[in-house]
Protein 1
Amino acid sequence: MSDKTCIKYSLIHDCSIAVTKVLQLTVMVQCIGIFLHSSSIGFFTDFLFVNHSFTYQQATAVENMFAWVVLALGIAIFIHPVKLLLVLISVLTFLSAYIQIEQGGFPFSSWAIPATASRYAAPLALIFALNCNKIHLSYWVATLGLCLTFATHGIKALLFHPNFIDYIITSGSNLTGLEICQSAAEILLAGIGLLDIICALAILVYPYKRIFYWMIFWGFITAFARITELGIDMYGEFLIRIAHFTLPLVLLLYFEKEQKHNSIYAPIAQ
Amino acid sequence: MFNNSFKHCCSYFFIITIILCSTSCNQSTINSKEKVEPIHVRVIWTENPSNHAIISWTTLHANGGPHYVYYDTISHRGNLKAYTYKRKAKVNGQITMVEEDREKGVPPGYYHHSEISNLKAATAYYFVVESSGVISEEYYFITAPDDDRPVSIIWGSDSRAGGEREFSPTFSKLLPDIIENTALHEIKGHEARQRMNEVITQIFEDNKNVIAFTHGADYGLTAQWRHLYWWLEDQQAIVAGDNRLLPLIISRGNHDTEIGFKENFWLGNSIEGRTLDTFYYTSNLSAHASLITLNTEISVTGEQRVWLNKTLSLIRGKKRWVVVHYHRPAYPAVKAFKGQTFTRVRNAFVPLFEKHNVDLVAESDGHVLKRTLPIRNGKHDKSGIVYIGEGGLGVPQRPVTDSTRWYVQSPGYAISSHHVHVINFNKDNLHVQAIGIDGEVIDNFIRQPRAKVSTPPTSPKHVR
Ligand SMILES: [Fe+2]
Ligand SMILES: [Fe+2]
């Protein structure tokens, strides 16, 4: 093995371990979030019971089954990431988004598939991260998932999603004691929406370290807004959105590895 | 429960997959023959029903106008020239259709909304609507009183039809009987909704004080045309034998978010000029009774809360009865108490209800029948507010598997039962009844007045 290959391998290896760990944690925490959501609000119960005339017992049986299977899968892949289980998690997460569209009943529910893209992208990004030869695929799956999530949230913000207005007004009041009026919240949302869309596009065409730092920060703040708005009881809503800030972290790790790799080989290339 | 889940999970997932591929409406296919007469004729009340109303209807053809309402305080049996008043429809347009609407066979529809004002209080108005030269039957409605006589409203919500499921013949053949027998049961569609509409009509005919039907929202699964069309078709049954219509007071729920909702329920502007497409407003039911409609599907902490606080400050001292209704519950009887939406509604609205001592709150969305204990500061308090609900106009009712929640303990309760409420605003008390699907009285209670209103105020004279 040449020096060059050896250093490259070691860089990829170090990076992959960090990325794999972050993604394993992401998928597991996300599964806990889905479990909590399924056990309290439910994904399937109304869809089956109200829309499709299943008995309530049948509908809740499916809901419970789904919740426990997702939780078990999340824990299993944290202990040992098996590709087949990760595919299953991704499919079940996607299915929950699809059911949200079918069931409706909350603002912009028909946008659930792009809005939750980071959720079902995270396990897929992990599958590719497990194979050193497919790191680039892992990077692109994470990028696409994150891009869709940020872009969709950006458009929702531009259209003044009512819950976003309430996050701003109540969180502002809880954290600073400031009374923010609706029109001010809407102006703020317009700016936020625009920034989200710019970030979503930037990571596709012009990935830049500071953008990833911003997305980690902003993904965390927006996920945590559920708690700053309504209190710690909303932790499930926060957990389910962990990928909003861990996927930019994954991209940052990949990006830094890439930069390090380039700077090491820059003198050799000259 | 978990054992059962395990036994059936495979078959359920199989069935879900099939349903995802083959859902289709089992409601009867609409005759494709073009209908020309105005249909779905309805009276909508907003803020000042003693002198103002909106008349809305649907046509199933694209013929041009004109679209008119002819009205008078005496019947002319459709003789257009005899009616004293005539108003052109203010808002007309094509109802938005999506691919599923066409697949389900609902015909293209057109909405028409006309606003009539300067009406006399507590007076019968006879009217016909005319579209493209075709006139409807003559109907009448009675405006709200502006004095202190007792009035009643019918209040109910969640009229979504039940399961819409029809397997394609191929799947039906493939599906083993044992799975069908285990997982499927009789599909009732919108029979329960139709039955509840009969109950409403009966109450309306029996109780002469009933002046309006207030809907706490979730009219259908969506506000797309295939769902609203059938809701409006079923709604047409709520008419007294002498063609008296029961005016509707409209609110918006979490399944009513599509554009079709605003197209079919146009409320115009408020007295102070605010657009009512926000679906929050106060209806003066009489000199001493106000009904506040709130909207849980828009921001609840922004302008709406500012408006609510201002409105309650203004009317609480003047009205003996202030009742509030909206869709998503602050005190859900079966849904997750700590759910995000319910917590948000509770935090935003309840402190104002308690500050201004509203007399009763009606909530929807949960698909059970409930009455809470009087609640103040998050606990049982005799001086608190009673919340009723929670959606029983035909949507399948959830079983109450956990009846230990503190706020539905006796005399409160939560049960699984289709229902509608009658709220009677009397001088001495607020009398509330819950009526079941067979017309039986399920609940009956009274609330004493809180406001010290000594003399009846002068009649509200907002002229539009
Ligand atoms: Fe609802
Ligand atoms: Fe509902």
Protein 2
Amino acid sequence: MSKIHVTTTVNGDAVDFLADPRETLLDCLRDHLGLTGSKEGCGTGDCGACSVRLDGVLVSSCLVLGVEAEGRSIETIEGMASPDGTLHPLQRKFIEHAALQCGFCTPGILVAAKALLEENPDPSESEIRYWLAGNLCRCTGYDKIIRAVQDAAAELRGAA
Amino acid sequence: MRYHSPLTFEAASRVAAGASGVTRFLAGGTDVLVQLRAGSVTPDDLIDLKRIPGVGSITREGDGGWTIGAAVSGAALGATPGLVSDWPGVVEGMGLVGSTQVQGRATLAGNLCNGSPAADGVPGLVAAGATATVVGPEGRRRMAIADIPAGPGRTALQPGEVIAAIHLPARGAQGGDAYERFIPRTEMDIAVVGCAVNLRLDGDTIVEARVALGAVAPTVLLVEACAQAIVGTRLDEAALDALAGAARAAAKPISDKRGTAEFRTHVAGVLARRVAVTAYTRAKGSRAQGHRAKGAAQ
Ligand SMILES: Cc1cc2nc3c(=O)[nH]c(=O)nc-3n(C[C@H](O)[C@H](O)[C@H](O)COP(=O)(O)OP(=O)(O)OC[C@H]3O[C@@H](n4cnc5c(N)ncnc54)[C@H](O)[C@@H]3O)c2cc1C
Ligand code: FES
Ligand code: FES
């Protein structure tokens, strides 16, 4: 099986890798680039644990082929905190509200929530729940996640 | 699997026409990648359409109609206010597909060509009288969307044919459309029944109507008897009863884990009534709130 050379941008850095055309973007991030923050919960678009931004659009990276990333720009959970390690307000609020237990869903939910707050800085509870309907969490019961997103949204609005 | 990323639809069609094994086009990939992962379909040739110039654009034509490129996502439809205001039913149907993540990728043409009888984007297109530009080895042709589904997982497209764009007619005065589906939960499920209604009024009287039912037959149904039940009426109780009766009579569903045939038949009537009222109200001037108000559509 011949591999394809892919050049793309991940969290602002130019990167390249060799991909089998059947490999998903999630496989390529994890196995070729060592970015293991994005998780595979299902591999079929149902759980959102693999959420990333592709040219700014929130997608499930298990439903994107690695070869499709050629020339695109990708943001993953690894790019969320500042380079000096300062956490994004969403990350901080998730810790403060104990919005995670095992943490497997957390990277995907953080990436998805950040995309929401950029589009809608003041979402209602039901808007948050619908936006995150494709992010499954088997531990928390979602309530603390919603509170953490609301609190982070309020802080971000205040800071703006 | 060979991955191709042609720069024209003619080139995409040539690759498909010349391929001997399993061939798939790649639009949003939200069906193709799931099938690849499940091992149910592993294409020998996968033809990505997203590098073709213009595939991501939504254009309002001079006559007021709309042209939607083959790679336009559900989210992009919902973010186009003019389209939402002209064809709220088409947009809300596609807006029900999957999660935010799926919305960022899934396309109308992919929803249509995947061939699910329960596809949420398709009844709205059929009710709207939408057409597709199809590029194939013999050149370009226009097909009515209603003529494309051929059965579960099958379309009437010929080998090598690819949809380049979907076209919606001009909305015109006093028209309205709507789509709703029934699912047992509020999000992330497959339609038990779907129904789209598109109609035009003269004053308070319906003068044209198209009613499409999804998930109650091997393909989407355009039900002429439903249209006849409401044309010439002001959508009074008698007309709504006749509409519901015609929808139930047309439904030929199967029983499966999502619902029995009896239940689906009943729901077809309930939804037809409800959706017709929404389309009528929109035609009278109070427009949809847009597809983000998903919770209201259940
Ligand atoms: C988690 C999840 C939830 C979902 N929920 C729903 C739902 O609620 N309702 C629903 O209807 N669907 C749902 N789907 C299915 C899927 O998202 C839709 O059918 C979607 O519209 C497919 O579009 P796509 O662009 O991703 O198609 P792709 O996967 O790219 O392609 C699908 C098929 O269409 C063909 N094709 C694509 N583009 C063209 C073209 N231009 N010309 C000819 N053939 C073409 C391909 O060869 C392939 O066979 C869901 C999927 C997932 C993963
Ligand atoms: S791993 Fe991608 S959605 Fe579950
Ligand atoms: S914290 Fe365990 S899945 Fe969400």
Protein 3
Amino acid sequence: MALLEIDNLNRHFGGLHAVNNVSFSVEQGMIKAVIGPNGAGKTTLFNLIAGNLPANSGTVNFNSTKINGRKPYQIARLGISRTYQNIKLFHGMTALENVMLGRHIRSKAGFMAGMLNLPWTWPEEKQIKDRSMEYLDLLGVADCADIEVSNLAFGQQRGVEFARALATEPTLLLLDEPAAGLNIYETAEIGRLISKIRESGITILLVEHDMSLVMDISDEIVVLSFGEKIAEDLPHNIQQNEEVIRIYLGYEDV
Amino acid sequence: MDLWKRYIPVLFLLALVVAVQLITHFTETSYYLTQLTMSAYYSVVVIGLCVLMGYGGQISLGHAGFFAIGGYLAGALTTHSLLPIKSHGLVAFLHKIGLLVASKDLYGGDLLTVEPWAACIVAVFTAGIIALAIGGPVLKLKGHYLAMATLGFGIIIFRIALASAYFGEADGISGVPSFKLLPGLEVSGSFGARVLNYYIAWMVVIMGIILLLNLIHSRVGRALRSIHGAEEAANAMGVNTARYKLYIFVLSAVFAALAGVLVTHYNGGIGPSEAGVMKSVRYVAIVAVGGMANLWGALIMGIVLNFLSLRGVFGSYDDAVFGVILIVIMLFAPEGILNINPWQRLKSLFSLLAAKPGENTTE
Ligand SMILES: Nc1ncnc2c1ncn2[C@@H]1O[C@H](COP(=O)(O)OP(=O)(O)OP(=O)(O)O)[C@@H](O)[C@H]1O
Ligand SMILES: [Mg+2]
């Protein structure tokens, strides 16, 4: 059984068939990339998996349980975490506090315990903080810890968002264009980091336009075009796939 | 530790409270204490609302309604005599377990009423339950719709207070007895208890603010703030945003209701104006001036503005002043007046006005 199984998934927006009968699966421990031109339906696919959008038909199975129809927070608790193409940080909170939210499902102090500041919540709170610092450190943004996130540079915001997603200790990590807007050094750094995360046992599903990054790090690639899956193969086969090359011609160098 | 940073302002507040009392004592201006006590109670509503609005990101234009539920229920239960239905099984039972007290009215007639502690618990609990009941559906609404739904709730409570004989119609309830919190500690408006009541009110404020400060710095508080920051991402972190929004709504309603109970005992009564929509607008305006996500700002503004209002500084324009404050804040200082850069705000406002229709303006 694969970790994530997507079966005949469909989503329409009015007359637009944004995700058209897409099926594929992601094996435990792999890095799988989803590529395709702008508007191909990649982000929509992520939203369907994470529960942000309901599917019109089809199923998403995670760990052999059907997860579509569940609420995003329930899906998160099952072990799926994500980052967004257009970064979604908690404004008005510091970088550290943002990442601390990632520890939410890994801690349990409740409403009353928090309000009364009960002593037993202190060790947990300290642990949340320490772990979050480690994730900030891993992403190289530990020095931003106490800065309100709106005041961070773009690359730093990406790092904080990535750290936040990791802090949930997910089984499956969905990354929507993690290298968008980064320079070549930062992109290479992100690539190394993604490989390292996979080595720690986390499965990764990745949407990315940077082809050299995708070819470098992914084990398998799914190609979407106008909502349909047109290819699914190993990276070097995708590079030679006639149809993929045709779709990408005039769009971006493969 | 961080904890110190959190509580040092509380110690300052405590010192200030004592200092003000001493000053009024030595300058023989202790009549100010009455308004300061009232302002303190109103500020309890304000800080509760501040957490809902500023940290939870939900607006409520119905908080005077919750205040009124607290005040009216406590008032009615502790004044309306149960003697005529004394033989009713439930009344007899309550009497037996000591939840009813016998007293005399102004003309020496016998009264049998609910003990203030029991009434307080019933009143606050009822407000909490009502918040829970309406919060579920109402908090699914966003922005204007949420504002309108809570406004509607406030109007309903106001109309009920005005229409019901039990709640005294246009006259409201008077003759509410004092509330003995502990032996020797009594919420009452009697002249001799002025200093004591000033301290009681401020202790309530201080306890309230400590609880709320703890909350916003806790795991649940972070989750609440994250909803305000980006609800979708909060959900993706496993935060059940709907549930937390409901919690904080109920909590702020409970704060408002408790303030209502205490003010009613302090004043010896409550009238329909306390339930009015303009009161709700006033609370929202104060939170906005204080800077939304700023508990201390809300508290300071709550004290200052309520004090000025109670002193009659705004004259018959009282309600209008708070309406104007709200508009001005929204236009010039959405961040509150304690952290604005007025010059920059003015410039951006002009550029907004100068922009041609349809043109995108960025601030
Ligand atoms: N909420 C929505 N309502 C209506 N249409 C939508 C919505 N979300 C996406 N679409 C449309 O669905 C199609 C697929 O969009 P999607 O964002 O999934 O593409 P993408 O592959 O992620 O593109 P990009 O590479 O630009 O990020 C697009 O035509 C888009 O306009
Ligand atoms: Mg996209």
